[in-house]
Amino acid sequence: MTDADDRRRELGRFLRARREQAPRAEYGLPPVGRTRDTGLRREEVAYLSGVSVTWYTWLEQGRPINPSRSVLDAVARTLRLSPPEHEYLLSLAGFGLAPLAPAVAVEDAPPHLQRLLDALAPNPAFALAPDWGIVGWNRGYADLYPRVAVVPRDDRNLLWLVYTDPAVRELLPDWEETSGRFLAEFRAETGPRAGDASVRALVERLRAASPEFRAAWDRYGIGGFESRERRFHHPRDGDVRLEHHQLTPSDRPDLRVVVYTALA
């Protein structure tokens, strides 16, 4: 199966999830049967988008068709996708802002990036690979999350730790909200690379290990990153408020630097 096949399948699953979650009352449509007030029929989405039912069905089925940008925009408007969801849909169809480069496995942050992380201390900072593997960190982050230095390399992945490490769950008083937001950001970033071996393996492991992940993954939440306040419950320092930032090195656009700065 090719990368294009994987993207078409992901696009179809995403559209189906959004269609099935759409509140019928917001479209002026009656419930289906006596109780089902959520979910549009394919025929309804096709009519509202100005496309044929057969064509839209093929789109959800991941058939090898080539939808135009204007048609995808119409479907996005019908399903009332948010801007990150709309961009996700376009990227799966090959209308991303830039061509996707092949993902390259990263095990450790390059030396110059590690020096940057160290210079940012005492602010907690770490570096993420394309599959969200944690490939470098500074002493500030090790103080916030001491287990980062001892977890096995294969488990040193931000999404894996959020959903499987009890220490991370204790660290996050708003774990449910934060885990869902991380997952939405992860999916937005990695969806066009759904066929990458590292991404596919991580998702399969998490689906097997975490019922919460499995349920959230099937809801197809999509969200872009925004700098924001984060709350932590540190075992030594108690409740801590930090601001969450994310940077992309111009010479290593495949990596991201995450920095937490203090809030007054």
From TrEMBL:
InterPro entries: Cro/C1-type_HTH (IPR001387), Lambda_DNA-bd_dom_sf (IPR010982), MLTR_LBD (IPR041413). Gene3D superfamilies: 3.30.450.180, lambda repressor-like DNA-binding domains. It comes from the Bacteria. One of its GO terms (molecular function) is DNA binding. CDD domains: HTH_XRE. Residues 14-86 form the HTH cro/C1-type domain. This is Helix-turn-helix transcriptional regulator. It comes from Leifsonia sp. NPDC080035. The lineage of its organism: Bacteria, Bacillati, Actinomycetota, Actinomycetes, Micrococcales.
